[in-house]
From TrEMBL:
This is Phytoene synthase. Its EC number is 2.5.1.32. It comes from Novosphingobium capsulatum. It is an enzyme of class 2 (transferase). The keyword Transferase applies. One of its GO terms (molecular function) is transferase activity. It comes from the Bacteria. Keywords: Transferase.
């Protein structure tokens, strides 16, 4: 990742996502960074206060790109370059675009976006050659608040360590001192629980 444009994408991630991506194995880290950067870009495109038509136009551009094979994507857009490993699972990313549209210009609230995020985690697991998707789906649903926490949380494969971190921090909630939250995030990243 010595490309300055790629480094800018990484540097632009929120701290928790940056930390989560750092715990992904080198082989899957680009998948995670691409996903997190796309989330950032879509959230910005659909941020509150923007006109609904402008939101739809910005999201339509991403929907159109993700509907095409990565070989046809415009060159020069660092995020598209980062998303090229997602080519076989573009549909999951396109559902994320639809989720943002539903969130900001539809009536579904966060439901469509949360389901799309679960789908992205399943697609990421598939791209990481993970066969048993059951624990990944449960962890993704717990991360998004779509499933209750269960005692003795099933560990996730190493490639999904960022999801373990996100799930663990979501289940902890917002309470606690920043130092304790940081230590909890480090523990989740290192051992996955």
């Amino acid at each position: 990742m010595h490309n300055p444009a790629m480094q800018d994408l990484i540097d632009g991630l929120p701290p928790l996502e940056r930390l989560a991506a750092s715990y992904a194995p080198a082989a899957t880290r680009p998948l995670w960074i691409g996903y997190f950067a796309l989330e950032q870009r879509l959230a910005d495109a659909a941020r509150d206060g923007r006109d609904a038509i402008m939101i739809q136009l910005r999201l339509a551009w991403w929907r159109d790109r993700l509907g095409e094979d990565a070989a046809r994507w415009p060159k020069g857009e660092p995020l598209l370059a980062m998303l090229s490993p997602w080519n076989p699972a573009r549909a999951a990313l396109s559902a994320l675009v639809d989720g943002y549209e539903a969130l900001h210009v539809g009536e579904e609230g966060t439901a469509a976006l949360d389901e799309a995020r679960v789908g992205v985690m399943l697609a990421l697991a598939g791209l990481s050659d993970i066969v048993d998707l059951t624990p990944v789906e449960l962890a993704a649903r717990q991360w998004r608040g779509l499933a209750p926490s269960t005692p003795g949380i099933t560990p996730l494969p190493r490639a999904m360590r960022p999801l373990a971190l996100l799930r663990g921090m979501a289940l902890r909630g917002e309470g606690g001192s920043p130092a304790l939250r940081f230590l909890a995030a480090l523990r989740l990243g290192l051992i996955g629980r």
